[in-house]
């Protein structure tokens, strides 16, 4: 029997963002483990989650990744009926039988960004899509990082209310810039690109980091560094162990300690990039986070 | 004398035969046309797939066979049909009254919120009370949300096209606020409400599938509203108000009250759909409880020529397309967005096949 | 008669489904004549004329105009040839000005409209020449029906048309306006134009026509010079039997007061005073007429009596009960029936079948409704009964009423209201658009209602109608009742003075009487 | 909060208002034409998506911005032609067909985008703000009004041309009459269907341009569902504006203003209002404004009604 893996994503895998990350993970498993893979996009419609899980499980899929916390309930409902299938849930901390949470702690790289922002800038702005955990978590890390440098560092936050409106993301960013923000991080899935656009148009004074994917082409003069999530590496690792018959016994959390999964790097080819001294400080903080000495989140 | 006695039943007989024949022909027309239309739409979907490097036959395979392969698949179709039928039926009433309620999506959210509030509030209530209570809460909330647009229309002549579109956004945004704020499940990081108490869940009628009593309620209501619109005096008033308001006033009908009645009925049906989604399917409130059922419901109603009875069938048709699209993605990795294309084509080809010319075919006359 | 007539419509066939609206019609019209088309409701007059001006395409047949065959089914072609029609329902865009309506469709679409002054000047010139009193910058929706009629006629002249078709132009005109129109038609003919005229009013047909063609059952059955015929013969040709020109009226004594109106006032829909302190009574077995030039508050009076317009002052009592200010839904529960003035606006619901139109006021009560549900059996029976009794021409009771000819729609409304068995019957324009045979029948029905003890108020702009059946006639002017007259034809002139507001002169005349 | 009253804040808000209003201005003025002729196109959202996608694809392929904008217009018109065929020629219910158009627009653009562009990650060159010598550098006004790109400025042109065409040409006069009393147009020998086709094509062409602005005049990427409901808002704008082009222009700006304000206000850290309350602001204000102005009954009489000749 071939090993089969299914993926449930809550949106379109064509967007540079969350869903694409899940899709890449699936493709990684296909390439590296030779698994037969399949995915389904569910348009953030909770009613269809359970059916999709059952569709895969009943067809004998070995692993099903529900890419997002919202899949947890449905997986729990289904899992008991399919004890031989492992249900992985992204951004969840669950561990109940064959339902296992996988969390990439985005607050950690964002903590580093916040740190850089507070060291180099006067005011920061965060533009989110909707107020959901992956985004809240990231922003929480950013704020904690910035405040570890300067407890009064001003940070404004705005949500556009969806993940498609690039125009709104751009205008929200522009308005923050006009209100004095010189360090901006957009995080709105498909609409993110609008944020980088705004940053690029505002000249070289506004700084940012490229998140999840590489956006240097959009804002070459503004992007100080990259946070690229190679979730695929982590997922491949986990799925490999399942394939080998070792189902994880606890939920899994990827962080800066997993350098192959969360890649945080600075760009050398940008004018007014991050100076060496700050880079050293950041490396230091990064090591401490990896070692568990710094908490990037509030709880 | 005897002659007359003898003739009566015979006249009735031929009458009956004629009526039956007419009915059969009409039914055949009514079914053949949409069926042909669906085939044409699927065929164009297949061509599109083939052009993009997929296997075109998969469309037929999945849509015509795959989705009906087992009980669970059929149950899932009916499950999806519940909100579509309910909303479609409600909109038949609104549209017959010439009220362009584009706000079923928002009314669905209002119903879902109310059902959630009720569903997480009364621990230990018997299902015999709890289930109807949740349904009523949903329906009332939907009616109230639609009623805002109704009142604005009656008292301020504010176009319901504008107000219902705006109220959609407001309902969605409010729901987002509620699940990230007041209604948020304290135990979860994700924005969602607490789970509804088990006693508030809609009883399932075909275990182990998820199909719940909502489908029976939806069909019963479709028939009830068919009777209401075309066989009751209140429904007649709604239709007259929708066609000629001067004549309606002249005939002693209260225009404002009928407008409110019709829009509230459509809102109540959408609200009920929301309650069923929460209490029958997800058991929690999420920000995205509806994948656009409210908008699809417009097409459901209009495809049925605003006939509530017909909405049962057009609702199921759309549910099949939805289910099929998911299955197509799982089995053939066809992007799900293609379903909107096929849905769009189904509507257009139904229209093109002139089902509209035959629209009275499905009505008994 | 020459061999080559000015216009020849030959063997025209037009079917709507099973219904034959033109069954091989052949019509010849000479240059410079006024040719009248007469015929029963639904005989096919409007359809035939719509074919002539290209709005409808016939199934068969041809038209030769000025010696040339006319391409059928193209309004453009008709206009290019100088054929213009004033339709039964006006073809004026209500939210545009008169001038804008005139230039509508003229010239290429890309034309920039920068000749407003020139157009206005031309309109005023034409208007002066024919004494039509049309203001080029008035919005159509602000004009009275009579004014719109003049605007329509002037439009045709503006377009330089030489064959003018008028479909029941006088149905909504006051007698004065009708007189003016007929004079105008004669002037046009004198100017070299040709006119086809449709009307149900035999007296005006006799006055204005050169020749007359009678249609029956979708065919032309008879054509004659006006000078060689008389109304009686025409009526017989139309209806196929003799029509009573004078209705026999039983002498009955009016009984108790049914409707009593005291100092009633109300405003029009746009908020101007329309009815100013009107008082009168209507008794059992009595037909009271209200005469007046339209626009003098009659419409508002009718609406106020039935609760369709808010009452500002005064009171209305029905059978002794105060019904002032009751909503229409309440008034509707009282024994009142109402034949409204504008059937398309109020009396019927065009897209609904005849059955459901018959249901209109009684949709929520026995015998058509019980426990909230409609009884289509009873409704269908009743509708069939009305269709038969009032000879409504229709293919079935399930036909949409919009497919009936104008006169037949009116007959159904009258039938429905008379069948309601009211104590008080309010009629606003009884015979609008009804043919002469049907008119006789309808009036007889109303008289029968009188004898059966109803109280009847008949508002009309048709003096003939009023004189034929009323017991007494009140004259309304400027929202007030300015006088009362018996239905005595010898006092016609006095009535004219009253209607024009010359109360003093009329009184002098009355004394002389 | 301290920033709210400053001139800078106001200037940015005005600038953002105009940009956010731009797609609405195009789409709603276009829809004014359509509805004035009696055709209600509820499929604007799908049309705008098509414009956004086709425009993007054209620039992606050719690198030419003018060609991209033209393609956006033509893309919109292509969808419009389908809509017109079904509503005018087949005489199907306009709302049904509009709903189908939305589904088609959504599905086709997403499908094509995935099949051909996804993963390229590349954006396209977009219209840059014009540097108007002297004006762009003015204090306050420069920021507020004179740092937009040509597409944004062209909204002024569009509204002027729309007013001229609708009220000063024979075409416009006839078009208005078609929506009010089609038969009156028919009997003077003008084709009601042709005018409705024309009106729909103008409407969808402009809506396509509105969509194109999103990908070619604002952000440089196509995203599935990038219009995010603007087609529906444009429909509301038309009703609110009482079917007047100038009204549509102003109401679009009003809507853009509320939208810009809510984004600006969210960014104020001191404002302790749930962000959803601010997000709802444009929609709530639209209702409030609508109630305050009181809609007169000036809807085109035959709006939504197919014309039957007989
Ligand atoms: N005589 C009747 N007996 C029973 N039902 C009737 C009768 N007349 C009308 N109805 C009911 O009224 C409904 C509406 O009739 P109608 O023919 O107007 O509908 P339609 O053709 O579907 O709609 P539309 O008015 O949009 O064309 C029908 O479905 C029918 O059930
Ligand atoms: N569009 C239509 N569809 C179906 N039947 C029609 C249509 N137009 C006219 N008819 C029918 O054709 C016949 C002739 O109608 P037409 O309007 O010509 O009568 P008319 O002689 O003008 O009557 P009236 O004196 O009442 O105006 C009528 O029976 C009418 O019901
Ligand atoms: Mg019908
Ligand atoms: Mg006629």
Automatic annotation (TrEMBL), chain B:
**Which keywords label this protein?**
Cell membrane, Membrane, Transmembrane, Transmembrane helix
- From the Swiss-Prot or TrEMBL record, state where the protein is found: Cell membrane
> Does the keyword field hold ATP-binding?
no
Superkingdom in the source lineage: Bacteria
InterPro entries in the record: ABC_transp_permease
| Stored PANTHER family | ABC TRANSPORTER, PERMEASE PROTEIN, GUANOSINE ABC TRANSPORTER PERMEASE PROTEIN NUPP
Q: What is this protein called?
A: ABC transporter permease
Organism in which the protein naturally occurs: Nitratireductor mangrovi
Automatic annotation (TrEMBL), chain C:
An example of a Gene Ontology cellular component annotation for this protein is: plasma membrane
Q: Which keywords does UniProt give here?
A: ATP-binding, Cell membrane, Membrane, Nucleotide-binding, Repeat, Sugar transport, Translocase, Transport
What region holds the ABC transporter domain?
7-242, 259-503
Q: Where are the transmembrane segments?
A: none
The answer on whether this UniProt entry bears the keyword Electron transport reads no
Matching entries from CDD domains are given as: ABC_Carb_Monos_I, ABC_Carb_Monos_II
- Classify the protein's membrane topology as the record does: Peripheral membrane protein
Identify its protein family: Belongs to the ABC transporter superfamily.
The name under which this protein is listed is ABC transporter ATP-binding protein
Q: What is the lineage of its organism?
A: Bacteria, Pseudomonadati, Pseudomonadota, Alphaproteobacteria, Hyphomicrobiales
From TrEMBL, chain D:
Q: Which PANTHER family match?
A: ABC TRANSPORTER PERMEASE PROTEIN, SUGAR ABC TRANSPORTER INTEGRAL MEMBRANE PROTEIN-RELATED
What GO molecular function terms would the record report? transmembrane transporter activity
Primary residence: membrane
The transmembrane residues are 6-27, 39-61, 67-88, 95-113, 150-167, 232-261, 273-293
Q: What is this protein called?
A: ABC transporter permease
Keyword Flavoprotein included in the entry's annotation? no
Source organism superkingdom: Bacteria
What InterPro entries does the database record attribute to this sequence?
ABC_transp_permease
Q: Which CDD domains match?
A: TM_PBP1_transp_TpRbsC_like (cd06580)
Which locations, inside or outside the cell, does it occupy?
Cell membrane
The terms describing its cellular component in GO are:
plasma membrane
Q: Which keywords does this chain's UniProt record carry?
A: Cell membrane, Membrane, Transmembrane, Transmembrane helix
What Pfam families does the annotation carry?
A: BPD_transp_2
Which membrane topology term applies here? Multi-pass membrane protein
């Amino acid at each position: 029997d071939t090993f089969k893996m299914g993926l449930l994503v809550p949106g379109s895998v064509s967007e540079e963002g969350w869903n694409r990350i899940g899709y890449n993970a699936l493709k990684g498993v296909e390439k590296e483990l030779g698994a037969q893979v399949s995915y389904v996009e569910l348009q953030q419609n909770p009613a269809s989650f359970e059916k999709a899980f059952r569709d895969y499980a009943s067809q004998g899929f070995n692993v099903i990744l529900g890419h997002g916390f919202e899949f947890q309930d449905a997986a729990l409902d289904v899992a008991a009926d399919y004890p031989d299938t492992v249900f992985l849930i992204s951004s969840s901390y669950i561990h109940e039988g064959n339902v296992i949470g996988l969390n990439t702690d985005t607050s950690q790289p964002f903590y580093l960004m916040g740190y850089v922002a507070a060291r180099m800038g006067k005011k920061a702005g965060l533009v989110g899509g909707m107020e959901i955990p992956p985004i809240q978590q990231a922003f929480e890390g950013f704020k904690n990082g910035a405040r570890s440098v300067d407890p009064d560092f001003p940070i404004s936050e705005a949500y556009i209310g969806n993940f498609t409106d690039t125009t709104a993301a751009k205008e929200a960013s522009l308005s923050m810039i006009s209100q004095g923000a010189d360090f901006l991080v957009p995080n709105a899935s498909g609409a993110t690109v609008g944020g980088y656009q705004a940053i690029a148009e505002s000249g070289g004074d506004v700084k940012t980091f490229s998140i999840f994917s590489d956006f240097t082409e959009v804002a070459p003069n503004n992007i100080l560094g990259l946070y690229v999530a190679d979730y695929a590496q982590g997922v491949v690792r986990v799925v490999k162990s399942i394939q080998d018959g070792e189902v994880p016994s606890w939920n899994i959390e990827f962080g800066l300690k997993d350098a192959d999964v969360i890649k945080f790097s600075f760009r050398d080819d940008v004018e007014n990039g991050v100076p060496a001294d700050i880079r050293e400080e950041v490396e230091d903080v990064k090591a401490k986070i990896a070692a568990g000495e710094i908490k990037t989140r509030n709880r | 004398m005897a002659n007359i006695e003898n003739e009566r039943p015979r006249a009735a007989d031929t009458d009956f035969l004629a009526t039956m024949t007419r009915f059969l022909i009409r039914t055949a027309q009514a079914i053949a046309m949409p069926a042909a239309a669906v085939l044409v739409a699927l065929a164009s979907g297949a061509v599109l797939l083939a052009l993009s490097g997929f296997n075109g036959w998969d469309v037929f395979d999945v849509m015509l066979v795959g989705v009906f392969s087992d009980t669970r698949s059929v149950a899932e179709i009916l499950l999806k049909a519940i909100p579509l039928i309910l909303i479609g039926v409600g909109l038949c009433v609104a549209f017959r009254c010439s009220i362009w309620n584009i706000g079923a999506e928002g009314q669905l959210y209002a119903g879902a919120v109310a059902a959630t509030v009720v569903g997480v509030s009364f621990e230990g209530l018997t299902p015999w009370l709890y289930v109807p209570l949740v349904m009523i809460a949903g329906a009332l909330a939907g009616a109230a949300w639609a009623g805002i647009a109704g009142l604005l229309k009656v008292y301020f002549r504010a176009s319901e096209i504008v107000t219902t579109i705006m109220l959609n956004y407001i309902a969605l945004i409010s729901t987002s606020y509620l699940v990230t704020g007041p209604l948020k499940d304290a135990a979860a990081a994700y924005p969602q409400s607490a789970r509804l108490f088990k006693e508030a869940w809609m009883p399932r009628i075909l275990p182990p599938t998820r199909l719940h009593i909502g489908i029976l309620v939806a069909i019963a209501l479709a028939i009830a509203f068919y009777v209401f619109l075309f066989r009751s005096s209140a429904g007649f008033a709604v239709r007259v108000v929708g066609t000629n308001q001067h004549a309606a006033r002249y005939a002693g009908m209260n225009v404002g009250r009928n407008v409110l009645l019709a829009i509230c009925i459509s809102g109540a049906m959408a609200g009920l759909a929301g309650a069923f989604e929460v209490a029958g399917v997800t058991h929690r409130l999420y920000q995205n409880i509806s994948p656009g059922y409210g908008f699809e419901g417009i097409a459901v109603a209009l495809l049925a020529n605003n006939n509530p009875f017909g909405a049962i069938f057009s609702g199921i048709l759309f549910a099949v397309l939805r289910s099929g699209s998911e299955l197509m993605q799982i089995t053939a990795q066809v992007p799900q967005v293609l379903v909107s294309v096929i849905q769009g084509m189904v509507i257009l080809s139904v229209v093109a096949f002139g089902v509209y010319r035959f629209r009275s075919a499905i009505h008994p006359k | 008669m020459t061999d080559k007539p000015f216009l020849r419509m030959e063997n025209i066939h037009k079917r709507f489904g099973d219904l034959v609206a033109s069954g091989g019609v052949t019509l010849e019209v000479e240059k410079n004549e006024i040719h009248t088309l007469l015929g029963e409701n639904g005989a096919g007059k409007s359809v035939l004329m719509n074919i002539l001006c290209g709005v409808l395409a016939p199934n068969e047949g041809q038209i030769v105009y000025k010696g040339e065959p006319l391409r059928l089914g193209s309004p453009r072609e008709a206009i290019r040839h100088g054929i213009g029609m004033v339709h039964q329902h006006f073809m004026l865009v209500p939210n545009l000005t008169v001038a804008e309506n005139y230039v509508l469709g003229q010239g290429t679409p890309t034309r920039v409209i920068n000749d407003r002054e020139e157009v206005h000047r031309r309109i005023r010139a034409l208007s002066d020449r024919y004494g039509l009193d049309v203001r080029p910058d008035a919005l159509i929706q602000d004009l009275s029906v009579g004014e719109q009629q003049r605007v329509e006629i002037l439009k045709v002249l503006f377009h330089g048309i030489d064959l003018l078709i008028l479909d029941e132009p006088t149905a909504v005109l006051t007698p004065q306006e009708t007189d003016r129109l007929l004079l105008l038609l004669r002037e046009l003919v004198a100017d070299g134009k040709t006119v086809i005229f449709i009307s149900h009013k035999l007296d005006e047909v006799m006055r204005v026509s050169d020749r007359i063609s009678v249609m029956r059952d979708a065919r032309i059955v008879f054509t004659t010079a006006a000078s060689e015929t008389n109304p009686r013969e025409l009526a017989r040709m139309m209806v196929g039997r003799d029509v009573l020109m004078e209705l026999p009226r039983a002498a009955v004594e009016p009984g108790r007061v049914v409707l009593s109106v005291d100092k009633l006032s109300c405003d029009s829909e746009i908020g101007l005073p329309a009815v100013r302190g009107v008082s009168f009574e209507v008794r059992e077995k009595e037909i009271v007429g209200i005469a007046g030039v339209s626009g003098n508050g009659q419409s508002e009076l009718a609406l106020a009596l039935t609760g369709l317009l808010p009452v500002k002052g005064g009171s209305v009592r029905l059978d002794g009960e105060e019904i002032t200010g009751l909503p229409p839904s309440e008034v509707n529960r009282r024994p009142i029936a109402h034949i409204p003035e504008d059937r398309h606006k109020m009396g019927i619901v065009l897209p609904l079948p005849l059955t459901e139109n018959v249901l209109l006021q009684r949709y929520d009560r026995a015998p058509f409704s019980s426990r909230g549900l409609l009884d289509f059996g009873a409704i269908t029976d009743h509708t069939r009964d009305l269709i038969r009794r009032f000879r409504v021409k229709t293919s079935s009771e399930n036909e949409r009423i919009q497919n009936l000819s104008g006169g037949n729609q009116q007959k159904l409304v009258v039938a429905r209201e008379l069948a309601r068995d009211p104590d008080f019957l309010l009629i606003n324009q009884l015979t609008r658009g009804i043919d002469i045979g049907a008119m006789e029948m309808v009036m007889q029905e109303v008289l029968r209602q009188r004898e059966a003890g109803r109280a009847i108020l008949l508002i009309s702009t048709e003096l003939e109608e009023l004189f034929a059946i009323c017991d007494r006639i009140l004259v309304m002017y400027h929202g007030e009742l300015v006088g009362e007259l018996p239905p005595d034809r010898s006092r016609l002139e006095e009535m004219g003075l009253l209607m024009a507001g010359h109360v003093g002169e009329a009184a002098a005349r009355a004394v002389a009487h | 909060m301290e920033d709210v009253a400053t001139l800078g804040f106001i200037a940015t808000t005005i600038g953002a208002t105009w940009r956010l209003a731009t797609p609405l201005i195009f789409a709603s003025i276009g829809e004014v034409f359509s509805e004035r002729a009696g055709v209600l196109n509820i499929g604007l959202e799908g049309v705008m998506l098509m414009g956004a996608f086709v425009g993007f694809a054209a620039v992606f392929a050719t690198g030419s911005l003018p060609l991209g904008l033209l393609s956006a217009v033509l893309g919109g018109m292509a969808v419009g032609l389908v809509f017109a065929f079904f509503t005018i020629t087949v005489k199907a219910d306009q709302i049904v067909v509009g709903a189908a158009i939305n589904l088609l627009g959504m599905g086709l653009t997403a499908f094509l985008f995935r099949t051909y562009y996804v993963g390229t990650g590349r954006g396209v060159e977009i219209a840059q703000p014009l540097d108007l010598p002297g004006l762009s550098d003015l204090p306050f006004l420069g920021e507020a009004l004179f740092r937009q790109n040509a597409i944004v400025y062209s909204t002024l042109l569009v509204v002027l041309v729309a007013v001229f065409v609708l009220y000063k040409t024979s075409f416009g006069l006839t078009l208005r009459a078609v929506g009010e009393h089609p038969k009156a147009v028919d009997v003077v020998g003008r084709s009601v269907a042709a005018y409705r086709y024309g009106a729909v094509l103008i409407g969808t062409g402009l809506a396509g341009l509105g969509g194109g602005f999103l990908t070619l005049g604002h952000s440089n990427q196509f995203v599935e569902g990038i219009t995010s409901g603007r087609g529906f808002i444009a429909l509301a704008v038309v009703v609110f504006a009482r079917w007047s082009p100038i009204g549509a222009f102003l109401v679009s700006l009003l809507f853009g203003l509320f939208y810009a304000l809510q984004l600006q206000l969210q960014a104020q850290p001191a404002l302790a209002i749930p962000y959803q309350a601010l997000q709802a602001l444009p929609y709530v204000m639209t209702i409030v404004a609508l109630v305050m102005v009181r809609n007169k009954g000036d809807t085109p009489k035959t709006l939504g009604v197919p014309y039957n000749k007989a």
